């Protein structure tokens, strides 16, 4: 950095208290260097203009010490106030609303002899604030002040990333992120709308009685369940009531995954029992095996992963009389076999896609709520971000014109 036009001057710290200094000014960067040469206060202070783009307010930073030869924290000729060496900087300060030294936070750090940093002592902080205010007050009176501001703007504009450009790019990235989220939620809403508008073919004819294959867990041979079936035309589920086979009696509600957020729900869900009992403690016709009434449900997102033999164990099944007591291994094996058999029967139903469409239509209104609310909120964020982007672009243009 090349400073020009050295000027000897006296900085006014307080009434009737001054300190000698030499001021030099760089016409390329707009920065001013004040080398203070007093008995108790010595060192360099750099005043760097940072005019806010698009604003009439002129801001400056005051840096303690000269520019180092290589990038590092330590600067050349860091100020010494009495015996305290000071490092850091202060600002940005509004030169047209400069506070009194008593209200100016100079934010310096005390460089100890071992290189560690501590907060400057209170008396040093007061003296540091006096000097900071004095150099800024002098800088304001410079006849070429506006030229220095323009030089600083030009210099900043030539850097790879100016503050105004960085501000604009930050808002642009934020806006891109918001719009990506909107697109994601909007895609969900469009898929839901497609399901809502889809025509439902004729309801499938479900035989009132079916014979369903199952795997006997004791012998590994295939047996046959006799079930009475009932289709729910409102949600696409089928109620299977086992009346013979596999030591089981009771009802099973089978359909797509119950809590799927997909517009067209996939997978398979098996709920033990039929409708909820009035007291809400269980379901009607919960299955009984070996005299034990069972309760629970099972959801499998990948229906293709289910077979008569796999998965070997079905989680989430418990005793209705005492949920804390374990289900005996034999009973668990039998109920798992029946659940797998009914899941496969539903999955392989010839009209299963129609049933999934019915299930999807039954859930559309509920599933719309969260993405619709998210889009509404994101639209507000988008409008606010667009306003900030407009302001950032105006600031960047003003900064560019300032440096012209």
What is the subunit arrangement here? Answer: single chain
What is the β-strand count? 17
Radius of gyration: 39 Å
Q: What separation lies between the terminal Cα atoms?
A: 21 Å
Largest beta-sheet details: 9 strands, antiparallel
Strand content: 25-35%
Total count of helical runs of at least 4 residues:
5
Secondary-structure element order, as H and E? EEEEEEEEEHHHEEEEEEEEHH
The class by helix and strand makeup works out as: alpha+beta
Percentage of residues in helical conformation: 25-40%
Shape: elongated
Low-confidence stretches: none
Mean pLDDT: 88
Write up what this structure looks like.
The chain is an alpha+beta fold and about 400 residues long. About 35% of the residues lie in helices and about 30% in strands. It contains five helices and 17 strands. The protein has helices spanning about 120-140, 145-155, 165-195, 330-345, 350-404; strands at about 5-15, 15-25, 30-35, 40-50, 60-65, 80, 85-95, 110, 115-120, 210-215, 220-230, 240-245, 250-255, 270, 290, 290-300, 315-320. The strands form two sheets. Strands 1, 2, 3, 4, 5, 6, 7, 8 and 9 form a nine-stranded antiparallel beta sheet that branches. Strands 10, 11, 12, 13, 14, 15, 16 and 17 form an eight-stranded antiparallel beta sheet that branches. β11 (about 220-230) and β12 (about 240-245) form a beta hairpin. α2 packs antiparallel against α5 (about 350-404) and α3 packs antiparallel against α5 (about 350-404). The protein is elongated and about 110 Å long. About 30% of the residues are buried. The model has no long low-confidence stretch (mean pLDDT about 90).
